[in-house]
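lol ok so funny story. i was supposed to be doing the assay writeup but got distracted and ended up predicting the structure for this chain instead. priorities right. anyway since i did it might as well share w the group, maybe its usefull for someone
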Amino acid sequence: MHATQITPRDPAERVRDTLTRLGTERDLWLSTSHPTQGPHQVPLWFAWDGAALWMCTNATSATARNIREEPRVRLSLPDTTDVVLLQGTARLYPAADAPPEAAEAFTAKFAWDPRTEETPHVYLRVEPTTVRAWRGVPELRGRVIMRDGSWVGWSALVHEQS
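and the output, tada:
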């Protein structure tokens, strides 16, 4: 296996690239844990509203059960060469009680409306508190691009766009 030359991105570029991916990709891995059942990981569709990720699952799923017991979660986009890992606390919304703008955005993106399913579904909302992003070993340093809910390098990105 040959290593590819990677030019490390600055924090603003990493934030911009991550926001682009959150706004355009459709799949992620969600990891939850239960005090007695242990860890659980599932692939889910997601919609990004600019502040939080929205997913949906059956109300009786292991994912929903775990979040009721332990709401701290980890999420990852599926690309292992352009890594994006997120952490946050999940909040569950019964499908009928989901904020309309979130439910409608999810339906528009996936042409599926969980509110119309016969079996009860819940929306999961995760506002990231920590985000890590890197492309290979050269980007391991500086991989934390969000800390305590604030984007690292965000002021540089805002200044760059103005």
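The chain is about 25% helix and 40% strand. Residues 24 and 48 are 8 Å apart (CA to CA).
back to the writeup now i swear
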